[in-house]
Amino acid sequence: MSEVLRNYFKLPNDDKTSPAMKLAMVPKTSELLWGTQRRTGTRAIFPIVRLRNVHVFPGIPQLCEKAFDQIEDLLFSKEGNRFFSHKIFLNIDELPIASTVETIAQKYKDVATIGSYPKINHSYYKTKLTIDSTDKDAAESVLGDLTTALKGFVLFCFGEIC
């Protein structure tokens, strides 16, 4: 990483104090992912840093978007890793339904995730639930279980008729 930064910023080899060199400070156990520039087919100028299952992207939105595009093939295979998502909007606060949601989340813990997000002082809904899975049938089963268990509180499901 130091060499990449020295070349990019045209720094002398012995310059270890330049503010630009702070970008080279990554854990030794991290891995550098080099994407491909779609327009030219050449290697990306800067790598994305991966430490186990954490990917570090640039903080500048335009560079972050470019980085996602450049390493998309490294992160997501063409055959799999498609995500199936649902959103459920409820007219009840989060706490009264928390145990019901947790029970369903535990039932599907190996195949789906459920997120619960309270919305304070909103004129239409009080809680939004999200369902994410790489298995379409599992996502639909979770959706079915939640809408059945929370019947009477469901306002609508994003992309689905409940």
UniProtKB/TrEMBL annotation:
UniProt protein name: FAD synthase middle domain-containing protein
Ranges where the FAD synthase middle domain occurs: 82-152
InterPro entries linked: CinA, FLAD1_M, MoaB/Mog-like_dom_sf
Listed PANTHER family: NICOTINAMIDE-NUCLEOTIDE AMIDOHYDROLASE PNCC (PTHR13939), NMN AMIDOHYDROLASE-LIKE PROTEIN YFAY (PTHR13939:SF0)
Coiled coil: none
One Pfam match: FLAD1_M
Organism for this UniProt entry: Plectus sambesii
